[in-house]
Amino acid sequence: MTYAANMLTRALLIGLLSAVAAGPAAAARTIDLGDSVQGRDIVAVEVAGAHARAAVLVVGCIHGNEPAGIAIVRALERAHPKADLWLVPVLNPDGLAAGTRQNAHGVDLNRNFPWHWRPLSGVYESGPHPLSEREARIAYALILRLRPHLTIWFHQHLDLVWASGGDRRIAKVFARASGLRYRPLPQLAGSAISWQNNTLPGTTAFAAELPAGEPAPTAVARYVRAVLAAAHAA
Q: Is the entire prediction scored with pTM above 0.85?
């Protein structure tokens, strides 16, 4: 590819991202949610559209070795949604720093929520009791406070939308816009998604399982569009 063609491609990519997330959102604000086990900040960024409706929560990283969603959440900070977006880039900063699925206590936060919690060990270590981990308690309190009409949790590396409750129509909208395969799959004991779908009637939570690796700018733009499409459908 020639230099001119490379520059044209780069310009097109920049233009695409700008169209999806044009400039800083005027209504954006950062909220300190608390600290991780090792004292790292956990924050949310609220981006409220001019005619915002119900809250939509997006979590970029709950497993520290699945960080691809962070770039998407950061791009959403510059979006202009119709919904009231609440964006948590990293719920598990200690795991992210260590490159581990679990938090600093060795607990899988996505097995630490109350719905059908049971003791698990190994890679899915669920902790000594439900909500034993401060990071899980932070997410639990935020969801109860917001009662988000839609919550999207980014994971890796299955390359699919894991739909296990709530309004499947919304998950299908996200799947079509994102290019990820839509799969109705079982609920998981102790997961944040299963807890919300079974505890807060009328709300929807699902997992967006991204492919392995860091997403390219075009993929980030596509996933941003998918989040906004799902938020509009919710």
A: yes
